[in-house]
Structure prediction request, 506 residues.
Amino acid sequence: MSARIGLRAVGERRARHGSTTATRWTARLGAAALLVVGVGVPAASAVQGTTPTGATAAATVRLEIGAERACSGALIAPTWVVTAKSCFADASGAVAQGAPKVTTKVTVGRVDLTGTAGRVVNADLLVPHAERDAVLVRLATAVTDVTPVKVATTAPVAGESLTVTGYGRTTTQLVPDTAHAATYTVGGLTTATLAIQAQGTGSTICKGDAGGPALRTTATGVELVAIHSTAYQGGCLGATTTRQDATETRLDNLGAWIDQQIPPLLTTLAAGDWSGDAHADVIGVDVRGDVWYYPHNGNGLSARVKIGSGLASFTHVMAADYSGDGKADVVGVDGAGKLWYYPHNGNALSAPVQIGSGWQSFKHVTADDWNRDGKADILGVDANGLLWVYTNVGLSLPARVQIGSGWGSFTYVLGADYSGDGHADVVGVDSGGKLWYYPHNGAGLSAPVQIGAGWSTFKEVMASDWSGDGRADILGVDSGGSTWVYENKGGSLPSRAAIPGAPQMS
Prediction:
């Protein structure tokens, strides 16, 4: 029987470094034959596999660990990659938490290593799992132009098909220039691992593929189920066995550990009085679609509390008192354009109620009390730049009234009681970064008043009463990720203050 090969191969540098070096590495392969940990090889690289594209390609990264070792991995957050712990093991097999012992370069978003797409950044921290062949690798510089892959939360099942990728060797190449992908079938499972078998005769996980992703395709996109740990490497260059099965390290049940090290970044923030104390709290939706409540504590925000889930595909999320009970509910538009109301039930969000459809073409959707009946109404900017108000009548929005036009170029449109008269006004950021206040005049909006400038670089802008004086203040997340409150002083925003405890956005 062929011995299973660990993917932690001794380093194989790229072929362009010269034949002498390549020969030296080849001579070392015998000693490293029990480790599939990648040295310049695509994770779960398919011998005759295809080149990955789209989200599958974005999920696959390459790590160069010192001068003689390389692995594959997956980008799971702008500053974090997960790969096999064995890629970093020393002679004793140990991996210590802290800075990598050798320079580690991570290539993200570059399927073809001879190209210039994507980014190459250094790693500055390793966080190994105590028991599994998995390590979190922190990037010294955030990668914001490649979408991280979502880590699965549903267990794999026997017979399920997964796409495996990596930069490992192939049948003919020691160190290929491109990543490869192939389809494998899930076999037996344990709590920590799963067995997989290639569906095609030309597919194999080879050295250099260690830590590479095993991906599931769902209706909402690609998600990361596991990473490559050991393989028989049948068909890989230099291998004598024909076996193509491998063992993966499961990630689907490591969510708590990952979250402890890497709190999921938020994709959306909204401000509203969740607690009912007249001060704005913050509601955030993370990359997994979980909904978090950050309580206002008088000075900043306290530790978050999970209040809901399932909003990953939502294009608009608002925190507003839709029910009229004095506490913010959540209203949002999903990927299909349906408008949903999630009632505040005291501790979390109750099951959603659909209150509209056809909202997929709206550029902006916001919520606040337009008619002063104590319940938030819905305001939206349609594809033509027209601003409409939809009056809240229980669980329906029976009619709408146009209250403006020319809003198509605005980057933010927010309904909030800026004047303090109990009626929603509108605050917006135009394409030039100017911040405008449009007063509610009873039937529509009066001429705008400029209350700020330089807002074009902000990642998020919110309007809600932070200070508790009855007038909406402006909250903004700047380009560096810091969250600020600009207190409303009657028509102007003279100063700002940082909000301690504010969450980070992707």
Q: What stands out?
A: The first strand starts at residue 5 and ends at 6.
